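Q: What structure does this chain adopt?
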Amino acid sequence: MTTKNRTLGSDSHLTVSSLGLGCMGMSEFYGTADEDEAIATIHRAFDLGVTFLDTADMYGPFTNEQLVGRAIAAGSFGRDEVQLATKFGNERLPDGTRVGVNGRPEYVRAACDASLQRLGVDAIDLYYQHRVDKTVPIEETVGAMAELVKSGKVRHLGLSEASAATIRRAHAVHPITALQTEYSLFTRDIEDEILPTIRELGIGLVPYSPLGRGLLTGTITASAGAAGEGDLRRSAYFPRFQGDALAANLTLVDNVRAIAEEKDATPGQVALAWVLAQGDDIVPIPGTKRVRYLEENAAAAALELTDGDLAALERAVPRDAVVGDRYGDMSTVNV
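A:
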């Protein structure tokens, strides 16, 4: 079982595996980390044809890039077989303190050099601005990112959680290859303006949290909540996981489960197949830190949904039926 490839971007196109691997949870936010299992997961991903790896300097902070770098160095595959994405802009200190969003040109350059060193590579395939800095014109930030392309340190540029207007301004400075933002059966607001805009401009979409931060896997219950201690989903930072909202959202998951059972699949596989079916310019990056969940996710690439299945999913999860914002603080998204 191997995934097929898809192309992100039209002006500056990047070929990647049709499913990527989000590595964030291997280091932080979603409970206890296990580096050996994480590296084994990355290596198993390559066995399955999942070669598009996603990290960021703020994950850890910093330690996730180091982990991904070690996994690449220890793998049986070559650097040219990896499509490596990382991000800057959510500035943190080594002790984890959050400084804020930083898009200043001098920070862009310093952050890139630090990421290259941690990853142990000469160039980053796709370099995202993780969040848009409202205090710095996007033209200045992307101008600095474009210099990184010219110098050979970065091959393609991306934005994350940017508004349609910001995307247009950024793309006018240098071709943007991909937009990373949240998109799933549970989060579809980008369909109004952002998705049409990036398609007009020839920019690919890289959905993070395509499984609704695990809700759509069907493994989360109202009694157990999100997970154990150390899992940020237990906090008010993620309103969809709290109290009555969680109960309502799990009812929607049950609807997906019923469709999945008819397909002899898991709810998560059906949810991923739905995202993949929204267009060949879309490459979701489900995150996991365990081999067994990686294998389950990768199998979704081979799951074909009929028009009837897609219509049934639309009825099962009406676009506006999910309860709760995706973040407790929405001030840094769609900027």
